[in-house]
Specification:
It contains 6 helices and 15 strands. By secondary structure, it is of the alpha/beta class. Bound molecules: ribulose-5-phosphate. Ribulose-5-phosphate binds next to helix 4.
Length: 223
């Protein structure tokens, strides 16, 4: 079993009967979705809220019943991947471009579980470019404002054209300067009109499901 599968499947064990489950996006949580689909077939009753169109499609394929925000008051648990995880369990997310929906769902969840193989662990966030979702109106100006904060944004491209998120927005992949405090970076970005959301998930993860050096499951809990 590959590392993503090991952590992805383990996270499905946190899901209990009757729960409303935030369903993350990416190649690690893919295995969680697959496992949940199997458990549903075996009788588990849950409702999922997907963080992307891609995940919505997968959930339907795997037979996970979906629910929407109108029908619920809260989300019991959200399970999602990460691009980087620091020792305090702060995250960079959005490599797949789903960060806005992912943050809405993680924020609404009573428990936020992150599935991350050991390659995602870093001492300091920022080796992976920080994805920032920006709205198309005036995006050239928004990019200049991000740039003036020293974050060197680069508009994400896909197949030679601008990458478009599920929300119809663009992604600016940014450089996090080493000397910049993460909280300050988050505040600076949130203050720029045109920024819809940033991929810093600070203090949000409750549990990180990862592996130790012998490939045994390691659960890290927020202290
Ligand atoms: C998508 C994300 C993903 O969770 C993140 O990119 C990790 O993906 P993977 O599990 O494929 O490495 O934030 O927006």
């Amino acid at each position: 079993m590959n590392e993503k599968q090991l952590v992805g499947e383990k996270a499905a064990e946190f899901v209990k009967e009757g729960m409303v489950v935030g369903l993350g996006t990416g190649s690690t949580v893919f295995y969680t979705l697959k496992k949940l689909g199997q458990l549903v077939k075996e009788g588990l009753s849950i409702k999922g809220i997907p963080t992307s169109k891609q995940t919505e499609k997968l959930a339907e394929e795997f037979g996970i019943p979906l629910i929407n925000f109108r029908e619920i008051d809260s989300i019991d648990i959200a399970i999602d991947g990460a691009d980087e995880v620091d020792p305090k369990m702060n995250l960079i997310k959005g490599g797949g471009g789903a960060l806005l929906r992912e943050k809405i769902i993680a924020h609404a969840a009573k428990k936020f579980i992150v599935v991350a193989d050991p390659s995602k662990a870093v001492n300091r966030l920022g080796q992976f470019p920080l994805p920032v979702e920006i709205i198309p109106f005036g995006f050239e100006m928004t990019i200049k404002h991000i740039s003036s904060q020293g974050l060197s944004p680069k508009l994400r491209q896909k197949n030679g054209t601008k990458f478009i998120t599920d929300n119809g927005n663009y992604i600016a992949d940014c450089v996090l300067p080493k000397e910049l405090d993460l909280k300050i970076a988050e505040q600076l970005l949130n203050m720029i009109p045109g920024v819809a959301e940033n991929g810093l998930f600070l203090g949000m993860a409750d549990t990180v499901v990862t592996l130790d050096k012998d490939k045994n499951i390691l659960l890290k809990e927020r202290s």
